[in-house]
Amino acid sequence: MGEISGVLAAVLSSALGGTSIGATRYLVNAIDPLAIGSFRFGIGFLLLLPLTIVRGDRWPRRGDWAAAAGLGFLFFALFPILFNASLIFTTAARGALALSTLPLLTLLIGAALGSEALTWRKSVGVVVATSGVAVALLTDLTSAPSGAWRGDLLMVAAALCMALYGIWSKPLIRRSSPIGFTTMSMAAGAACLILLSCLRGSFAPVAGFGTPQWLAASYLGAFGAALTFYLWAFALERTTPTRVAISVTVNPITASLVGAYLLHEPLRWNLVAGIVAVFAGIWIATTTAQRIQAASASASSRS
């Protein structure tokens, strides 16, 4: 049950990430990406901190503080900077496809570091799910601005940050707790973004914020940061980094579905086919452990 709950938490986390794109795009017209990241993870930290204290969740050990802070800089500071910068040069569709290299990067790096076995089912599942994203975004990938490859590379670099966070944070999360670790690492990333925003004067436009802007920032903090990344850490505690990473392929699918609902865009055949392929890939990559456990239990009962 732990494996299943981890996969479901990862899928929900990625789905929430897809819905956060709308709030981010709305705020881009009011403040720069650094300030958006500061609000997102600063509010997320402020919401997670009292929850961690009230629940009595374990914080990372003193010996893990430096590692937790370093991973916070990597995931909650460098990742959003690379992510936002990539969209300056490339389209959202190409960026989504580049980010979907995350499960492949996680699989290869995890195998190279010896933290996760490279199996054929996980490999096939990753390829099928990533192909599903490409099919779903097929109609949006045909046009690209000049020099889009720079944005694609920046997004792959962002995916690399996410892959390393997933692999290196797993043992730290197990030694502490999902909420405790996420709170500490998010605090480090948010502090870095806030400092950079202050140095750049990124908060100046906040004086003109109205209710819509504050609602968008609050949504990003509560759902796009606190809940999304708690679920991500919860998933990493219960299943492998690759099985968590493959759920990111749900992100562009969710964003497309939200666009179809809110903007009354037609559900084209490629989006439907992409949805089927994504969930087929997730199923292939995440059912290995359950089958092995079932076979082991059956063998034990016969003996």
From TrEMBL:
State the GO CC annotations.
membrane
Per the record's keyword annotation, is Cell membrane included, yes or no? no
Q: Where are the transmembrane segments?
A: 33-53, 65-89, 95-113, 148-167, 179-202, 214-232, 244-263, 269-286
The source's domain of life comes to: Bacteria
Specify whether Transferase is a keyword of the entry: no
Query: Which Pfam families does the entry mention?
Result: EamA (PF00892)
Membrane topology qualifier: Multi-pass membrane protein
Q: Any idea where the EamA domain is?
A: 5-137, 150-286
Q: What is this protein called?
A: Permease
Q: Organism, per UniProt?
A: Bradyrhizobium centrolobii
Q: What is the lineage of its organism?
A: Bacteria, Pseudomonadati, Pseudomonadota, Alphaproteobacteria, Hyphomicrobiales
